[in-house]
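> example.struct
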């Protein structure tokens, strides 16, 4: 993970980064090398791979060369984002209304997590974890599976089946993806068939 500010890009590198940003925003996953080649008008993967290496070295992406769909955007984050906390609100009986700002909820540490991305939840398999259909989950890229705590909620790309949001368990060479809803059975697969794209850091629900 790169801690310093991203370095300036060449025009070719900026062109690829801008295209990647639009593609990932629209499709919710990273493109293949062939798709990047087509978008950049290139006939060989070598120039694309070279640009990706430079984007990674300069702090704009994370990418595991040779592994499909592992690319995550980094880029820059807002300088400041804070919301005033005006007091407490009762979910039972009544409490005294708030008058003055007591503190601020600082969102900057959350937004400074490099590569943070959002996904819209489809379905009810995580409802017992208080994640409902239509919620937006904020995810942080995962670099090392072995560092994930058992039960961490992750977005996982399952080969041939798409992406799912589940509790993650690594058991030897097997991965178990467990729903937070008794109506859904756990998914157990060889670890090499599962790509963990990110771990949950926040849930956004618009009402």
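> example.seq
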């Amino acid at each position: 993970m790169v801690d310093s500010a991203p370095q300036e890009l060449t025009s070719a590198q900026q062109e690829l980064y801008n295209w990647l940003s639009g593609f990932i925003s629209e499709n919710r996953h990273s493109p293949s090398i062939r798709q990047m080649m087509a978008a950049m008008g290139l006939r060989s993967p070598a120039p694309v791979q070279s640009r990706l290496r430079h984007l990674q070295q300069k702090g704009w992406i994370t990418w595991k060369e040779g592994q499909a769909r592992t690319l995550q955007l980094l880029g820059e984050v807002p300088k400041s984002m804070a919301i005033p906390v005006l007091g407490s609100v009762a979910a039972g009986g009544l409490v005294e209304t708030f008058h003055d700002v007591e503190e601020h909820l600082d969102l900057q540490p959350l937004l400074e997590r490099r590569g943070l991305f959002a996904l819209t939840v489809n379905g009810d398999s995580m409802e017992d974890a208080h994640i409902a259909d239509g919620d937006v989950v904020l995810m942080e890229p995962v670099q090392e599976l072995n560092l994930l705590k058992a039960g961490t909620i992750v977005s996982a790309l399952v080969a041939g089946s798409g992406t799912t949001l589940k509790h993650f368990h690594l058991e030897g060479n097997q991965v178990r993806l467990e729903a937070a809803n008794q109506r859904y059975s756990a998914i157990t697969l060889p670890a090499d068939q599962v790509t963990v794209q990110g771990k949950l850091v926040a849930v956004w629900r618009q009402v």
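> remarks
The chain has two domains: 11-73, 117-204.
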